Amino acid sequence: MSNLLTGAEMVVRALQDQGVETIFGYPGGAVLPIYDALFHQKHIKHVLVRHEQGAAHAAEGYARSSGKAGVLLVTSGPGATNAITGLTDALMDSIPLVCITGQVPTHLIGSDAFQECDTVGITRHCTKHNYLVRHVDDLARVLHEAFYVAQNGRPGPVVIDIPKDVQFAVGAYFGPHKVEHKTYKPRLEGDPDKIAQAVEMMAAAKRPIFYTGGGVINSGVEASHLLRELVGLTGFPITSTLMGLGSYPASGEKWLGMLGMHGTFEANNAMHDCDLMVAVGARFDDRITGRLDAFSPGSKKIHVDIDPSSINKNVKIDLGIIGDCAHVLRKMVELWRARRHVASAEPLAKWWAQIDQWRARKSLSYKASKEVIKPQFAVQRLYELTKARDVYITTEVGQHQMWAAQHYHFEEPNRWMTSGGLGTMGYGLPAAIGAQLAHPDALVVDIAGEASILMNIQELSTAAQYRLPVKVFILNNEYMGMVRQWQELLHDGRYSESYSEALPDFVKLAEAYGAHGIRCSDPAQLDAAILEMIDTPRTVIFDCIVDKTENCLPMIPSGKAHNEMILPDHDAEIGSVIDAPGKMLV
Amino acid sequence: MNAPAAPLSPYSSALGKSNIEVHTLSVLVDNEPGVLARVVGLFSGRGYNIESLTVAEVAHAEHLSRITIVTTGTPEAIEQIGHQLERLVPVHKVTDLTLRGGAVERELAMIKVAGKGPERQEALRLADAFRARVVDASIESFVFELTGNVGKIDQFIELMRPIGLVEVSRTGVAAISRGPNPIG
Hints:
The complex is a heterodimer of chains A (586) and B (184). In chain A, 37% of the residues lie in helices and 17% in strands. Chain A contains 22 helices and 20 strands. In chain A, strands 3-2-4-5-7-6 form a six-stranded parallel β-sheet, with helices on both faces. In chain A, strand 2, helix 2 (32-39) and strand 3 form a beta-alpha-beta unit. The longest helix of chain A has 15 residues, at 52-66. The radius of gyration of chain A is 24 Å and the shape is globular. Chain B has 184 residues and is α+β, with helices and mostly antiparallel strands. Chain B has two domains: 10-100, Alpha-Beta Plaits (2-Layer Sandwich), CATH 3.30.70.260; 104-174, ACT-like. Chain A, domain 2 (Alpha-Beta Plaits). Chain B is built from six helices and nine strands; from the N terminus they run H-E-H-E-E-H-E-H-E-H-E-E-H-E-E. Chain B has helices at residues 10-14, 35-45, 75-87, 97-100, 118-129, 150-164; strands at residues 21-30, 52-59, 64-73, 91-96, 104-114, 133-138, 141-148, 165-170, 174-176. In chain B, strands 5, 6, 7, 8 and 9 form a five-stranded antiparallel β-sheet that branches. In chain B, strands 2-3-1-4 form a four-stranded antiparallel β-sheet. In chain B, a hairpin with a 4-residue loop joins strand 2 (52-59) and strand 3 (64-73). The longest helix of chain B is centred in the C-terminal third of the chain and has 15 residues, at 150-164. Mean pLDDT of chain B is 90; it is low at 1-15. The chains are: A alpha/beta (586), B alpha+beta (184). Chains A and B meet through loops of A and helix 2 and helix 3 of B.
């Protein structure tokens, strides 16, 4: 049975019918009817952010930590354009978002009206799909379809642009039952013959490796369980991308650590020397592959992905399996058991012996200090003092992000929220707010840098308003550290504009926002200060003063292969490592 | 049209620089606002080439439009283009007609030629040889309508150039597979 509602009422009703409990937004002229509809109900909690980019990242943090779609509501013109960075971020990292934007009334579209912009035109390139709803009778269908498209197949952001007159117009509403898109029908089940072939290749492999990515996490908790089972059955080593951390536990004995530009020596060398690579829900991004023509030259490559365009995009694949990670992993586990496969024991033992030699290089080590807090040490202590808790970690972007990925260890999926593909400074604080709203009793920590945090610092006000006890743990080295590191690598240490001049006093800043501020610069005091942060039931800014010039290592320099890493014990000056073609890369 | 192939998308370089091929893709899409912009934007955003593009509704009741795109690239890049097009939500089906072999490809061109005296005679003679029709005439000009494959039209235009070619309007390539079956 349909019933008659205004367009604005339909929006709220559809959110409710889609099971949405929390949305992030900022009101404005072109969304006032929807805000009025929100005013009249109690089912959906609206979280008022301080900038629309914050709304998008908060929705991402909410989505990534809960496995549900994140929803944001913004006004036309600047409301929509401010959300663009967050939408692009969600597209790159495959995060399901539904973004509702107000638009000027239909008769004013194209007239350069106040706060008008071509929202569907601008967001066409940074969304999975978008809609401009010109008739109220299309609205119910579009709202439900948007949730379907955002969450099915490879997830992503979807924009629904609703002109103000459509929000006032009355039309028939219907619920979300039987929403099936007429063209968009992603394939979930992998081709059984190809899966069987993959399992045979795995049984015959001598130097195999699992390389997994964010797709395993997007596929749901079940996919992570199946991955663990398959790793357990086969005894193969496993590494993950930045986005894939937590799908296999960091304490697991087959875990090699993260791979890629700042991955471990053992993970990258195992990728380089393997004879069979099983890529699951990963996309062979340039941070992972390093120099492409020297990428894992001797291996056969199996690639499981729900997005057919990921297969053979950057790297030639021998066996591509299009399907959802959980579906394909389940079939692999079943087949491996049914055929009573045992991995080739002797070659596998030799392979592990080789891996143990690489592990012995201890590529994540650093020179400890009693005088100054090493950033790696700060993350290690944070990990040790929080690991027993129900904890969610977000980050900004830069050195601190990589140190967090290297030294904070994840046992479960959905516990780690970071901007991987787009690399968006300013992601971490709003994402932490989103994660905290999804998990009110959990400990949520944004591991930040002093430069990144200033990009969305206004969201401290949001945290204060909703009494969210998020912790902002700033590794303050007074530099845009990764920029400084690359300037040391590529530009003879000419630190052009990378010094964080005129920083605020973060402790006073915390107090100004009604939060609690802590500063620590003494390694001996660090544990006590971290415990104070954890025990403070309010928003906390922790200004952790760290070594200013520490480099993030190990590192595959740009233009180099997996087996050409710079290790922490590298003696020569690092400014001479990268050759001319490498300098062209990012 | 037959310009030398520009450097290809970044994706192709990663997969080796094998032969550059010309492929004709047929893309069935929902005829909804913005769908052409999505397709064209995908090509520009990812650095693919469009040699020619035609679009029109082909089934009114079903709101289906058919886009025919002639593109150039390595076989790997063209495979990638197909997959990227399939990712677009309003796209029903992408068919590489070149891979299927032997599609019929036609283009329509209108060609304006001006001149007096013996040039007019020569233009008409050549038009007759190419089976071009005269669709407009004045004392000092003709507009020819010519249908054929791209090469035939290119050749006719080259012949008209010394005679008094004024301007050309071309539709781009429309293509359909041979035999009894529809694509897909």
